[in-house]
């Protein structure tokens, strides 16, 4: 399976601050991926690096095997991008914007861009249609849902999903919450404090992550075979969130399923504790 | 991309067109009237045959007095290229950064270089047209004055040759550069004006009179202030004044002795004579091309920097 997006040790520094550090991940073609992380985690930086709007300080980024910076003639027609707050030319009408798309994109598809589809000419919807009618192979959206009301969110996601079903489009959309994306995404990238925390298939992630509840005890035994993401201890009991690396045998643990939202939260809070102890051990975990 | 650039600057284009039409009408109406007056009064005849009669100098004075206000208005049209630089040049790229539409347009299927070059060609092309129209209009309008007081002087030089087109291109180039550098429209407009002044003032008041060494003639006090070889109307009298005892050039003389005539006073203070520095008429066109070259070279430089900035400094 080929990768739509691939980054290797990708890093971006502004002055002394690392916006993104040592990011290695692959997004297989045909996936709909959620890029989740708190504000300031480096999501926008990763997206901008991916579409060639930024130059990496270190590392490599490839779109279908091409550099988005140097091979723009190959990558630009294959990329769809909706920037944060979906900027559009303010004095352009929706029809003007579609004409812009038609004039600037050889692969433009007018049937995808009928003005009738614009449902009231909402800005986000226009920006989405503008990017979709370009018929990209990889679509990147930066916090597309952040400024939308629930109804508009549903409309937006439906337009996006219809397109992926019809064309096998690969999608990467960022968000600071997972809630809305759980239904539409099948791939997850967790980014926090400028590091990738987790990359993988959502079902696989849901299957391998468990909550273990048991009497208060030392977690070393379980940590030797499985990866402990989060530990919380009360006087009587210990609760763990672990990524299992095989079957769980220890009968002293009660095993529970965990929601995706809790998994995401666990990774995000893990990063906070880690950066406090400045350990870098489990920064990059890839589930395959 | 041409359509996009046109659509983005449609309003500006109509405003520019309107201003050009109004300016042309103004120049045409007042210019025809003035040329008619110039012919009918006999002033044209006086100048053509170089008559030195009292009636001729009276006519010249009357003509100058009558049209001096209009001349000032016509000269004010030279502000248009500067306005063009600040109002069209500065926002060209700055507005894209400011409204973040660069994130939209840079991800269409055309390269960023292509996007910028189309914008540059269209806007600089507009600059050429505006400069050209002003050049044709103003130099035609000024032609009676040119016969009367010449074109080789600090003011008329600006609109009597290719320098006008080059300074229009320069204003736009500086505006576009300032906008790309600051990425803020208002700041860019301000910076554009500063840059235009910082380049044009030294050129006009320092460099221009020295593209070739000035010719200086001196003569003794006894000849009073009549130079041995009087200047023609098309020569540019750059500076004139007095020579002190050591032969230094002095612009003005202060005489305190109330009873003395100026000449006696100057003699008493040891002044030696008069001097006059000028640029002869035949240097007008070489000077025009030199200055055109300077402005176009600076334009190319800042446009190169603009392309570099847009390609290099992303987002």
Uncertain segments of chain B:
none
Specify the structural class of chain B.
Answer: alpha+beta
**CATH fold naming of the largest domain in chain A:** Rossmann fold
Which residue ranges of chain A are poorly predicted, with pLDDT under 50 across at least 5 consecutive positions?
275-288
Reading the helices and strands of chain A in chain order gives EEEHEHEHHEHEEEHEHEEEHE
Instruction: Count every beta strand of chain A, where a strand is a DSSP E run of 2 or more residues.
Output: 14
Helical content band of chain A: 25-40%
Helix content of chain B: 55-70%
Average residue pLDDT of chain A: 84
> Could you say what the CATH architecture of the largest domain in chain A is?
3-Layer(aba) Sandwich
The two chains with the largest interface, and their residue counts, are: A-B, 34 and 21 residues
CATH class of the largest domain in chain A: Alpha Beta
Beta-strand content estimate of chain A: 25-35%
| Cα-atom radius of gyration of chain A | 21 Å
Task: Give the biggest sheet of chain A.
Answer: 7 strands, mixed
CATH superfamily of the largest domain in chain A: P-loop containing nucleotide triphosphate hydrolases
Multimerization status: heterodimer
The number of distinct structural domains of chain A comes to 2
Number of strands of chain B: 4
State the major sheet of chain B: 4 strands, antiparallel
- Mean of residue pLDDT values of chain B: 90
């Amino acid at each position: 399976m080929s990768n739509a997006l691939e980054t290797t040790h990708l890093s971006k520094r502004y002055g002394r601050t690392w916006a993104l550090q040592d990011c290695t991940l692959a997004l297989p073609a045909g996936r709909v991926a959620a890029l989740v992380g708190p504000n300031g985690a480096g999501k926008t930086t990763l997206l901008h690096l991916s579409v060639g709007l930024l130059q990496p300080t270190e590392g490599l980024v490839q779109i279908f095997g091409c550099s988005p910076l140097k091979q723009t003639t190959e990558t630009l027609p294959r990329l769809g991008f909706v920037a944060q707050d979906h900027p559009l030319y303010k004095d352009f009408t929706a029809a003007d914007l579609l004409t812009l798309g038609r004039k600037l994109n050889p692969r433009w598809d007018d049937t995808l861009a009928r003005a009738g589809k614009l449902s009231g000419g909402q800005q986000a919807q226009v920006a989405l249609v503008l990017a979709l009618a370009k018929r990209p192979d990889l679509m990147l959206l930066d916090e597309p849902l952040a400024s939308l009301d629930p109804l508009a969110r549903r409309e937006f996601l439906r337009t996006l999903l219809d397109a992926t079903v019809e064309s096998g489009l690969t999608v990467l959309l960022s968000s600071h919450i997972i809630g809305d994306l759980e239904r539409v995404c099948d791939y997850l990238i967790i980014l926090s404090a400028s590091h990738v925390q987790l990359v993988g298939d959502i079902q696989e992630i849901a299957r391998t992550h468990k909550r273990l509840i048991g009497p208060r005890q030392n977690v070393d035994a379980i940590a030797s075979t499985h990866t402990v993401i989060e530990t919380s201890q009360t006087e009587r009991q210990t609760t763990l969130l672990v990524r299992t690396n095989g079957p769980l045998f220890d009968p002293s643990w009660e095993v529970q399923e965990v929601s995706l939202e809790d998994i995401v939260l666990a990774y995000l809070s893990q990063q906070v504790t880690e950066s406090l102890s400045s350990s870098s051990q489990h920064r990059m975990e890839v589930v395959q | 991309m041409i359509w996009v650039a046109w659509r983005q600057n449609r309003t500006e284009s109509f405003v520019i067109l309107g201003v050009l039409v109004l300016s042309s009408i103004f120049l045409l109406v007042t210019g025809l009237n003035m040329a008619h007056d110039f012919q009918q009064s006999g002033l044209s005849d006086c100048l053509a045959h170089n008559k030195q009669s009292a009636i001729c100098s009276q006519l010249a004075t009357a003509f100058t007095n009558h049209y001096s206000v209009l001349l000032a208005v016509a000269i004010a049209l030279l502000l248009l290229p500067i306005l063009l630089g600040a109002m069209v040049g500065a926002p060209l790229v700055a507005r894209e950064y400011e409204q973040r539409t660069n994130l939209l347009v840079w991800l269409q299927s055309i390269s960023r270089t292509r996007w910028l070059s189309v914008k540059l060609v269209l806007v600089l092309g507009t600059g050429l047209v505006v400069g050209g129209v002003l050049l044709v209009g103003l130099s035609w309008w000024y032609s009676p004055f040119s016969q009367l007081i010449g074109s080789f002087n600090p003011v008329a030089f600006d609109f009597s040759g290719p320098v006008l087109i080059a300074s229009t291109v320069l204003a736009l180039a500086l505006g576009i550069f300032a906008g790309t550098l600051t990425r803020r429209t208002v700041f860019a407009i301000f910076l554009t004006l500063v840059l235009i002044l910082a380049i044009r003032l030294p050129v006009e008041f320092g460099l221009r009179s020295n593209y070739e060494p000035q010719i200086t003639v001196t003569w003794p006090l006894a000849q009073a202030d009549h130079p041995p070889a009087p200047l023609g109307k098309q020569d540019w009298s750059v500076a004139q004044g007095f020579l002190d005892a050591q032969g230094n050039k002095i612009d003005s003389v202060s005489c305190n002795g109330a009873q003395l005539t100026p000449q006696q006073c100057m003699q008493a203070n040891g002044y030696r004579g008069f001097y006059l520095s000028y640029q002869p008429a035949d240097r007008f066109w070489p000077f025009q091309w030199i200055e055109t070259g300077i402005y176009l070279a600076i334009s190319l430089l800042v446009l190169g920097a603009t392309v570099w900035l847009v390609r290099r400094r992303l987002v």
